[in-house]
Amino acid sequence: MKTIYIDIMEKALSAYTEERIREYIAEVRRNGLTEHGFPRLGANIGILMAHGRRLELKAEFIEIIDLCLYGFAHPQNKSKGGNNFAVREVCCAIMELEKTDVIDRKQLEAWKEKLKALDISTTYTDIVSEDIKHPNNWAYFGVLSEQARGLLCGIPTDAFLEHQLPSQLLRLDENEMYRDHSLSGPHQPMVYDIVTRNLIGLSLFMGYDGKYAEKIEKMMDDSDDLTLKMQSVTGELAFGGRSNQCIHNEMMQANYYELRATLLKRKGDLDKAGIFKAAAKKAAEACMRWLQEKPMSHIKNHFDPDLQLGCEDYAYFNKYMITVASNAYLAYLVADDSIEPTAVPSDLDSYIAETGEDFHKVFMNAGGYFLEFDCNADTAYDANGLGRVHKKDCNSRVCLSVPFPAGETKYKLETPNKHPLSICCFKNTEGGIICSAEDGVKHVLVSKNEGADQCSATFNCILNGECLFTEKYAVSDRGVDIEFCGADGILVPAFLFDGAQETDISVSDGQIAIKYNGSFCKYIFEGESQDYGVFFNRNGRYRVYKIETDKLYIEMGDVNEL
User: Fold this and answer.
1) 3-state DSSP call for residue 87?
2) To 5 degrees, how large is the angle CA 429–CA 431–CA 436?
3) pLDDT category of residue 326 using cuts at 50, 70 and 90
4) pLDDT per residue over 433-484, tens digit each?
5) Comparing C-alpha atoms, which of 55, 99, 49, 89 is closest to residue 69?
6) If you count Cβ atoms within 10 Å of the first and of the last residue's Cβ in the chain, which end, N or C, has fewer?
7) CA proximity to 95, closest of 125, 76, 115, 121
């Protein structure tokens, strides 16, 4: 497994041409260090060089590290160039290179002296104070940077960790999930939950054994079951909120799973360690599949990445493509390949799992199918209802991976959507339609049943205290059966275009079939369908069909099975 992480690092770096790297260096020479993508680029070049790869970039690597160290000591803006993130990256690269003779020893020592001279108060942002009592995840990125600096330079770091950590523990919900958006309340982003719990857990791996060590252990132990069950059968991180559908999500997930496997083995729990090792393998393989698609991008579509379609303003290629490599290195660092991977929950059992209300998610898994519902979506990012239908060994976009936002969206779309959309039902009104994906339509799970090889669930869709619809779902190895009560019809999104490749969509009486990259998805129904227009999400374009029916059956598989 360790080898796949180095392979992923090299694959991610290959998306940067030497010309692009030189242009990036020139940009930082002109403008100073303003964000953490640049240090990550340099650090990951260095780590790959330490493993005998990309040695032709040695001169560029030295120049990048010199610029970074100057930038760390002379911050250009209030973000301090992303130092909270970047100091760790550079320290880890130097630690890897110290094991080799790739870089002259005197050069490494000179860099270490500059790192040793950094001052916490001027290097990092988001330090707990009277003015900043409850900082978000940046506070703990700084802790990990300081721990890495401590390991490299022989500096004590426990005091800084213990100063910062209590503010972070206040952000944990009843399931020990991390609320980055606010101390409590809905619309918490899924990526930043796993990111920050991972950072906190990494403190133990990096040697912390102070007064909060038991609390960190408890955080991880208590969240283990839900953390595993949120992983899709395709190995992907749950959708929801900012920075979603970026390729680095799966690598951060793999990192956390590797960390848990290693820490659990240390405690003697080899059974659970094997489950987490299997989950890490599934996430790593998912990431590698994405990286092997062409053209390569940092986001799960194939539009020109510089267009930033599917991305927030901050989520641009130079910063987030290399973050894949950065997260892969952390997975490499913590991985223990003496642990044998066993099997993950989604491959073994049927289940229905729920987050707390701040994350408002429900996951259904049975027969190789995996469904994800958002019950109270932030419709600037997502939509209410069934936003994901995956099947094991199928392309994750052939049906749906993430829903469709509307209005003032927080990420860039080709064209705004006319309203939020998932696989949802609708009711005709004088002004048009109202659908169960709309802003404010909360989905309340009112019953569930988990059998040996199937599961079912019923949701009431509530708007302003009134139940508009009741939605019933049954999942088994034969597919997904849906019944909508109180509806005039169903809206079904059919994947149309990923930014480079069109899918094959066929429409006939009672069926809509999509073929894409070796997989198929069939929507089967009784009733008439009509074209409702094109909608857009992070993955691309979808043609939506308006169907006059109250039942829908979804089947997925390999195109060779048709």
Assistant:
1) helix
2) 55
3) very high
4) 999 999 999 999 999 999 989 999 999 999 999 999 999 999 999 999 999 9
5) 89
6) C
7) 115
From the list 258, 239, 260, the residue with the least C-alpha distance to 249 is: 239
90 pLDDT band, cuts 50/70/90, is very high
Sheet bearing 432-435, strands edge to edge: 432-435, 424-429, 489-497, 540-547, 529-537
Domain boundaries, the chain: 32-125, 349-561
Instruction: Kindly tell me the burial class for residue 19, based on how many C-beta atoms sit within 10 Å of its own C-beta (0-12, 13-18, 19 or more).
Output: exposed
DSSP string, 268-333: T-HHHHHHHHHHHHHHHHHHHHHHHSSS--SBSS-S-GGG-TT--TT--HHHHHHHHHHHHHHHHH
Both tokens assigned to 449:
């049943």
Q: What is the DSSP letter of 244?
A: T
Separation of alpha carbons 395 and 494, rounded Å: 14
What are 280-305's pLDDT values in tens digits?
999 999 999 999 999 999 999 999 99
Say whether 434 sits in a helix, a strand or coil: strand
Task: Name the pairing type of β-strands 479-485 and 385-391.
Answer: unpaired
Percentage above 90 pLDDT, the chain: 96
CB 183 within 8 Å of CB 125: no
What's the CATH fold of domain 349-561? Answer: Beta-galactosidase; Chain A, domain 5 (2.70.98)
123-125-129-134 Cα dihedral, nearest 10 degrees:
-150
Question: Which residue shows structure tokens 């708007």?
Answer: 463
DSSP notation for 190-239: HHHHHHHHHHHHHHHHTT--STTHHHHHHHHHHHHHHHHHTS-TTSPPPP
Confidence of residue 198 (pLDDT cuts 50, 70, 90): very high
Question: Where does the pLDDT of residue 171 fall: very low under 50, low under 70, confident under 90, or very high at 90 and above?
Answer: very high
